[in-house]
Specification:
This protein has 15 helices and no strands. It is an all-alpha fold and 316 residues long.
């Protein structure tokens, strides 16, 4: 495999964290990150100019999410990821499991719906197009667990254990498409589970937790399969550059360990977010019930008490 086809230096020095974090920007992801931050910031400013607020926490989540993508795609982690399976696996785990969660907690779709102007009568603007997409049959399919969970699993086993991975790694566009795919799969998998932005598939909190835990064990199994292999399983990483001074099987073991361990991180983050959302939802429901009781003088409670009294009278 000729790694130099990506315009990379075949004589990369041995990997250290400091070297991995040096700036080496991928133009596509750099432009995408800057555009995402600019559009999000512009939308927040539009809201504030008209007197509407937007939670600071959501801004922080979104910014950190974008920066996490830039961290693995606009530094030399991306260069080392072309020749080291372990570094590539860090990229994969971050961009498919950590970045999507952070981006979704920023509620970009909700922000867009609030910031975009409403088109005039019988006209279709960006906001209306976004709403049409959210309610389309296509979105109902791609956010349904019957689609997202198999896609999430296939992105591991169907990619790494077939020649497709080597084919994509053989060109810069292929590698770029693979990374965009990882990010997209993470977004559609976690979107209905997080439940922050509106979407066509909105299960209850228990179902969301079940969807989360249905997908996570397969990451652990994938990591264990890599660690238990007696030889390198991916052609791309069978012959790393001599300048790295690494053993491909040892590097694969590290990659497997990263995949196995990393599956726990998003599970904990999403679980905390879901419990918090569930608590907030219960609080809102209780407040609505209290307000309704104040308006009608506990009519529902009085009717229920009267019903119990009638049952008791009949029993006598």
């Amino acid at each position: 495999m000729d790694h130099s086809g990506h315009g990379m230096n075949m004589d990369l020095p041995p990997f250290t964290l400091g070297r991995g974090l040096e700036l080496s920007a991928d133009p596509f992801f750099l432009a995408g990150s800057v555009a995402a931050l600019a559009l999000y910031g512009y939308a927040v400013l539009r809201l504030r100019r008209r007197g509407d607020g937007w939670p600071v926490g959501r801004i922080v989540f979104f910014v950190v999410g974008v920066l996490s993508v830039a961290l693995v795609m606009c530094t030399k982690l991306n260069d080392y990821g072309m020749v080291m399976f372990s570094v590539h696996m860090v990229q994969h785990m971050v961009i498919s499991m950590l970045s999507p969660i952070l981006l979704l907690l920023g509620a970009p779709v909700t922000l867009a719906l609030r910031a975009l102007p409403v088109a005039g009568r019988d006209r279709t603007g960006p906001r209306e197009l976004l709403l049409m997409l959210l309610h389309s049959r296509y979105m109902k399919i791609v956010t349904h667990p019957a689609f997202t969970i198999p896609l999430f699993i296939a992105s591991l086993y169907g990619l790494y254990f077939t020649p497709l991975f080597d084919f994509l790694m053989g060109s810069k566009p292929g590698h770029l498409a693979m990374m965009v795919h990882f990010l997209g799969v993470g977004l559609v998998f976690f979107w209905p589970i997080m439940g922050v932005d509106p979407g066509p598939h909105r299960p209850g909190y228990v179902m969301r937790m079940l969807e989360l835990f249905a997908g996570m064990p397969f990451h652990a199994f994938f990591g264990i399969a890599l660690m238990m292999a007696s030889g390198p399983m991916v052609e791309t990483y069978k012959t790393p550059p001599a300048s790295l001074g690494i053993d491909p099987l040892s590097d694969q073991n590290w990659a497997g360990g990263i995949a196995w361990a990393f599956s726990e991180i998003p599970s904990v983050l999403v679980l905390i977010a879901l419990v918090f959302q569930w608590y907030r939802s219960e609080q809102r429901t209780a407040k609505r019930a209290d307000r309704a009781a104040d308006r009608d003088g506990d009519r529902e409670l009085n009717a229920y008490n009267a019903y119990l009294a009638s049952l008791q009278a009949r029993g006598q």
